[in-house]
Protein ECM25 (Wickerhamiella sorbophila), 403 residues
Amino acid sequence: MPLLQIASTKAPGSGLPVVLIDSTAVAPGELPSESLILDAVSWLPQTDHIVIFFASGAPKTPNMPWLLKSYRLLSREAKKRIQRVFMVHERWWVKTFTSLLGNVVSPKFQRKLVHIPNLSELAKHIDITVLNISPAVYLYDHSVQEIISVPKHIEPVFGLSIDHPRGNMVYDHCIRYLHSVEPREFLDDSFKSTKGSPLSQILIQAVARGQMLNLQDYGPRVVISLVKYYWLELRRPILSRGLLADHAENHQRALRELPSTNHAALAKCVDWLHQLHRSGFETQLIVTEILPFLTQNLDSEPEFHELQFLHVLIEDWPRISQPDLANQALPSLPPRPITPPPRNSSWTRSRSLSPQRGKALQELPLPNANRVLRPKTSLANIRGPKIAEIVKTYEERLDDMGY
């Protein structure tokens, strides 16, 4: 964030331009040089304006000679154009300095100074939601107060239906940002929980009150935490556990039966996750961290078929998302080592085929000769252009054998 910027809003009531000066933009322990101060002064509006000075980055101890020199760099005309100065998060010595040096700082200029302890207090004077405030300022304010309050009605963003435009706008903005981030910038812990992280709480609160912000200032890990919070707060989950359980062996059917809005939201996410997968990011790590938020299930471990569904979706997304291949079955992952299935399961019955029936099944011209039939899998679940012909051939051969 720059040291000085002109806000895109005007001061309420007066309509004057608002200038933001952020002391956190200066490296700790360093003081802006004379040339930097003169350059900042040159950017000040040539008309009357208001200054908001975020002082949390100022040194803990004052440097009186530097303060006097900086004040004298402001011309008389520049001081006259400044109508109000909001000193936010000021150090103890700032107020002392302005009161003790009355012969240097004119009484008229002193009356323009307004001492503000936190951002909630600043919101009583100016609409802070239209100010681009840096995360460093928010972090300091978070140490003073946990929640920033603004005196205006705020439309909710979280806890809405998935097709609500306000929530959709936030979600789309986050996904576009994550798409723009280079895969090498994602670390192994980028998808892990940031619960309790002050920066994550700050970003969620900022979005909830409609705050102007720049996601690049927060980084991918914090933005991912915002996306997961958005999923978790939806009125209904993007992925229904019941739907995935009903079609545990037919992922394509489960995908097709998703509501169109859920399908669209899932597609935006999976398209980005597939890019990470292609760059070498471990798919299993992504799946285990985000699936509980897609299903809104944080209280129990996800089922294997749920993990498998999202795993296959991420790794095979280009083929799945093509309309001409939409009717083909998704590839299946090798089954994990689990306890034997119940004695009366379809898998147990399929292992006890008679020699004649087994031979007829082996001779069928299946679309993929390498396909392995999974538990509870039937020919009716295999999608392909020749399914009718395959089923008819199969039934005829069984009829000839007397089955």
